[in-house]
Amino acid sequence: MAQAAGLSKRRKGAPARLARRFAFLLASLLAVSFLIFAVMAAVPGDPAEIMLGTSAAPDTLAALRHQLGLDQPFLLRYLDWLFGVLTGDLGNSYTYSTPVGALIAERLAVTLPLAGLAIFLSLAISVPLGVLAAADPNGPVDLVASFFAQIGIAVPNFWIGLLLILGVALTFGWFPAGGFPGWEAGFLAALNALVLPAIALAIPQAAVLTRVTRTAVLELTGEDFVRTARAKGATPSYALWRHVVPNALIPVVTMLGLQISVLIAGTVLVENVFALPGMGTLAYQALSQRDLIVVQNVALFFAAIVMGLNFAVDALYAVIDPRLRR
Q1: Start and end of every ABC transmembrane type-1 domain (predicted)?
Q2: Which of 81, 180, 185, 294 has the most CB atoms around its CB within 10 Å?
Q3: How many domains does the chain have?
Q4: Structure pTM?
Q5: Where residue 181 sits, what CATH number does that domain have?
């Protein structure tokens, strides 16, 4: 009976832990939203002047400020914006005079596939390369992995993008040098336009994850459970991929969650290098045009993506390591 009660308690522990994490996520998003709004409110510049021009009459500027709610107290404006975010009304862009939600939805059709492809490529490169490097320390694959990791960490992703444009797109013509035809042009055409930007984003992430994978595999190779598996007749290859690699994925997943914010920041530069109409380009254009309502909504959306993915990574731990389900 006591054993059954303990088992039931452990089973209830994981959902309760995730519920606490989710509550912390919501509280963090609320704090970040207030911080973003406060920073945008402190930025010099009058949105009404941006929309009407500096030559507009004072009474016209005052009427527009009243229409936009800019003459309201700070806290009231923040609560109004927060209520709009919760109900899906993000306001209208000062520059484009269109709903911000429509702008973000349009640009997400580029940024989300780009980020997803970059994450897939970084994992597809780093995990096999790190495992093979750890399987033969100081061997040829290990030397290649070390060289790749050093170059990938040292070179910025936008510079990698420029090299890919010059060395691949313009030289061989296999991929477009920039622009996005849209998904209506066909899945392959749209995917083709995202390959080089995704590689530019993936290489620095893959470099970091390669080092983490190699270190994790080397640390686990000498553990007792691996020696026990070898003593029972498991081949070195089977022990590596069946026992070592699944346990080595925990630090890899942890680092991947930490690198999500770096990946999101990299999209701003890479999308501008490849002239992709994504969220990064939207944020850059809105900032240069002082379209603060767009900037604050995009910043909040990026923060929500990073926090949401880190929550997903935290939940993934229990899938990778059954011990954490207790």
Answers
A1: 108-313
A2: 294
A3: 2
A4: 0.79
A5: 1.10.3720.10
